[in-house]
Write a structure and sequence with these properties.
The complex is a heterodimer of chains A (246) and B (589). With 246 residues, chain A is of the alpha+beta class. Helix content of chain A is 36%, strand content 15%. The chains are: A alpha+beta (246), B alpha/beta (589).
Chain lengths: 246, 589
């Protein structure tokens, strides 16, 4: 196995020490095929047991190991050492409060997700002892938006998430859109109360970084622009709906 | 210490835990449910399941066929009453997920699509491309958010069950974010903590699959059943152990040795053609396929690579369009982690530890031997999988028995009529004691990595695909001595906030205890059945071992191993037959 020693500088923060975050460097002998997560595990096992970070699946599907690597949000399990320069700076995800070392507080996303009602709101009762019929074309309309692994790289990349602490954020909005587009769902107008509010889609200034960094090509920026359009049409047609109801 | 008095505690928020929580919330809307997990629900290992979930839905299929496939696939170690309940409730559970929005792949007429899977006579595996577990988990998690009575405690690590007067009264936990000790008190507790694959070095399992729940139940006196049965999935990527779904073979993929030969035909799984063909060749059961690899390696017919011995999983004949539609994740994983595009090259694969058939002994209502304690999913053993689980039965299992656990617990809450507001302090202190010791000043010279490496080495070498008396005796001795060394474990981190090193230490302790149950159960079973293969006892022995093993915790001593008869209702033990001519592949009674 070819080895290469990488200098990994990690932003450390331990709230119990009353010290501001600082950088700590480690020289890590890396095997050629390693991902950054393997290098962090080497540090944890052999160099410094106090380093804390989240990880589990090691296959880019559980969404635990998002971090900022040389300035870009990435999954540590899908960042290959062979693609990294000799010195790497690793920091926690931006725009979210740091709890310790590479661990950020994810409650903002969890709350935003709950607020957009990410579940099927059916028009009537579901078919008895049978599935809803959904054509492959209908599935294809929303499938991409259902691929979000909640890794929060998009929150770290989005300037609006940093500027407005109330903004629901790209992943939560993309998941709202996922249900809006699902042929089994009739909850779009209900969700629009939240997604069309001041903390919803109109906060997005279409920088598009969220889609750039998404490891699963979910394209939250596209979802948000489509929701803006739908939201505008809803606003224009709202008087008509009121008339129908009365 | 803080206490939280509630009606029901569910430990683990993967597929089984979320399903249990939703079922309990629906069965008893007035009950307060605390859903505790050491990770956020979306990180749970259900997320990594790929191929799909089995349930009879098509006209050409029947519950009887699903029953027979499962029982013969499990080499008759399945409890047949449990399998009957399982196959009967499977379709409803999968339909319910469909109603909740799971993006199942579809036929052109809008119905759900099913694919063939190993050991299954008919197509009955529902799938969402090759991210079925991911979509099931996220659908359940997102659906759970609409139930206000489900209160989540994300990133709380469960230390031990609180037991008083012979009943489970709650669980002692550590809040990872603060290090605070929190005792949850409730008349009903459900364990849904997943498997134990991380006790092996080469596994598809995520870092979190460390046998915590099994160990908690075991320490509290609930026996662990059939722990000797560990499933090797035949197709993992070398080095990382990343899973390449059986769905790849369900779609028509083939396995080739170094001569480009479909070697499975030499292991009572052929003839190779016509292909694809159910219950034959690459669609044989996982135990047989992994064992065939072992023999091929012995014969020098596997392919030597820098990452060890492999065979080739060839999907090229499926074509790019089908691979991209049905197996996009397989393509993504192969390209990223093996540097191979399955559209143009075969994928190197080898058997990899994947699933723990054994677990906490439960009845078919998901109740354990400890009153007040229930269990479901991979941590439990309700005995639908027997000696070898069929692929795509476990996602369905966590739905069916997760829901049963939720309903059983809801019923117990209703009959208890009140929250468990107090327990005696001794019971709580005992549960919190282990953490205090690890964090305290008493230090030895053992390290987490050192003990874990020792565990990995012995499990892989002595408790793998083939075992024998000498290896297993050595495994029993070595795991015993690792347990003796464990109290001398020293950790560097003595802080409270997100002390992941402390958690790794506690997880290691759990794995050592459960590994001991595993190797002693394996040592006791002097026969070969399903995934438990003994070179010194190559035959199945129904006279002695048509029985479940039950390992009971005995403190620092090795476990006591007892046996209980398998429940046989209508399908007498016979020979497992795979391959053969089309349509004739079935078990002989």
């Amino acid at each position: 196995m070819t080895e290469r020693t990488l200098r990994i500088e990690i932003q450390r923060y331990q709230p119990e020490d009353d010290e501001p975050p600082y950088w700590q460097g480690y020289n890590v002998p890396c095997e050629e095929h390693w991902v950054l997560l393997d290098a962090l595990n080497h540090i944890k096992d052999h160099l410094d047991g106090t380093l804390s970070y989240r990880w589990s699946c090691h296959m880019a599907v559980c969404g635990s190991c998002g971090m900022v690597v040389n300035g870009d949000p990435m999954l540590a399990c899908k960042t290959f050492v062979r693609d990294l320069p000799d010195t790497v700076r690793v920091a926690p995800l931006s725009n979210l409060p740091v709890e310790r070392d590479l661990i950020v507080d994810q409650e903002r996303f969890m709350t935003s997700l709950s607020e957009v009602s990410p579940w099927v709101i059916p028009a009537g009762t579901p078919p008895e002892d049978a599935e809803y019929r959904q054509s492959p074309q209908e599935l294809a309309r929303f499938r991409q938006y259902s691929m979000c692994i909640n890794c929060l790289l998009c929150y770290a990349a989005c300037p609006q998430v940093g500027l407005n602490p109330g903004y629901l954020g790209p992943a939560a909005l993309a998941l709202a859109h996922r249900y809006n587009l699902d042929s089994r769902d009739d909850g779009r107008l209900w969700r629009a109360e939240v997604t069309g509010s001041e903390n919803g889609v109109w906060e997005c200034t279409f920088v598009g970084e969220c889609s750039e960094v998404c490891p699963k090509h979910v394209d939250p920026a596209g979802a948000i622009q489509q929701m803006k359009l739908a939201n505008s049409l809803d606003w224009l047609t709202a008087p008509l709906r009121r008339k129908e109801r009365s | 210490m803080r206490t939280v008095a509630t009606d029901m505690v569910i430990i683990g928020a993967g597929g089984a835990g979320l399903q249990a929580a939703i079922a309990a919330a629906e069965a008893n809307p007035a009950a307060d449910i605390a859903l505790i997990s050491k990770v956020y629900p979306m990180r749970s290992h259900t997320v990594a399941a790929e191929g799909g979930a089995a349930g009879v839905i098509k006209d050409n299929d029947s519950l009887d066929d699903h029953f027979h496939d499962t029982v013969s696939g499990g080499d008759w170690l399945c409890d047949q009453d449990a399998v009957d309940a399982f196959v009967a409730e499977a379709p409803k559970a999968l339909l319910q997920l469909e109603h909740w929005g799971c993006p199942w792949s579809r036929e052109s007429d809008g119905r759900v699509s099913v694919r063939p899977f190993g050991g299954m006579k008919n197509e009955r595996t529902w799938f969402a491309a090759d991210k079925s577990g991911f979509h099931i988990l996220h659908t359940l998690f997102q659906t759970s958010l609409k139930h206000a009575s489900i209160q989540r405690f994300d990133e709380y690590y469960a230390l031990d069950l609180i037991v008083q007067d012979g009943e489970c009264r709650g669980v002692a936990t550590l809040c990872l974010a603060t290090g605070e000790e929190v005792a949850f008190l409730a008349p009903a507790v459900i364990l849904c903590t997943g498997g134990a694959g991380r006790m092996f070095p080469f596994t598809t399992n995520g870092a979190i699959n460390t046998a915590d729940g099994m160990a908690m139940a075991y320490r509290a006196g609930a026996p662990l059943k059939d722990m000797e049965f560990v499933q090797y999935h035949p197709t993992g990527l070398p080095r990382t152990g990343i899973l390449i779904t059986e769905g790849a073979r369900g779609e028509g993929g083939i396995l080739l040795n170094k001569d480009g030969y479909r070697y499975l035909q030499d292991y009572a799984l052929g003839p190779p053609d016509p292909w694809p063909r159910k219950k034959a060749m690459e669609l044989g059961p996982r135990d047989r396929l992994s064992q065939a690899f072992w023999h091929e390696q012995r014969k020098g017919r596997t392919i030597s690579t820098a990452d060890g011995e492999v065979v080739h999983l060839d999907l090229r004949h499926l074509g790019q369009a089908k691979i991209d539609e049905r197996l996009p994740f397989v393509r993504e994983l192969s390209r990223a982690y093996a540097g191979v595009d399955p559209v143009t090259e075969p994928i190197p694969v080898r058997p990899v530890v994947h699933y723990t058939m054994g677990g906490i002994d439960t009845d078919i209502q998901s109740a354990t031997a400890l009153p007040g304690l229930f269990a479901a999913g991979e941590c439990a053993c309700v005995s639908i999988n027997g000696a070898n689980r069929l692929g795509s039965n476990s996602l369905t299992e966590l739905l069916v028995f997760g829901a049963r656990a939720g309903r059983s617990a809801a019923e117990r809450v209703r009959s208890a009529g009140h929250k468990a507001t107090s327990v005696n302090t001794d019971a709580c202190e005992a549960a919190f004691g282990r953490t205090t010791r690890l964090l305290g000043e008493v230090r030895g010279n053992e390290t987490i990595a050192g003990l874990r490496d020792g565990l990995h080495e012995v499990m892989e070498r002595c408790a793998g695909i083939y075992r024998d008396e000498t290896l297993l005796r050595e495994a029993c001795e070595k795991i015993g001595s690792l347990r003796e060394r464990f109290p001398a474990l020293a950790i560097q981190d003595h802080s409270r906030v997100y002390n992941t090193e402390l958690i790794y230490a506690l997880e290691l302790g759990s794995m050592l205890e459960v590994a001991q149950a595993m190797v002693h159960s394996a040592h006791g079973r002097q026969e070969s059945r399903g995934a438990h293969q003994r070179l010194d006892y190559p035959e199945r022995n129904d006279e002695r071992f048509l029985q479940h093993s039950l390992a009971t915790f005995r403190g620092s001593d090795p476990p006591a191993i007892d046996y209980r008869a398998v429940v046989i209702t209508r399908f007498q033990p016979g020979e497992r037959v795979y391959g053969g001519v089309p349509g004739a592949a079935d078990s002989k009674a």
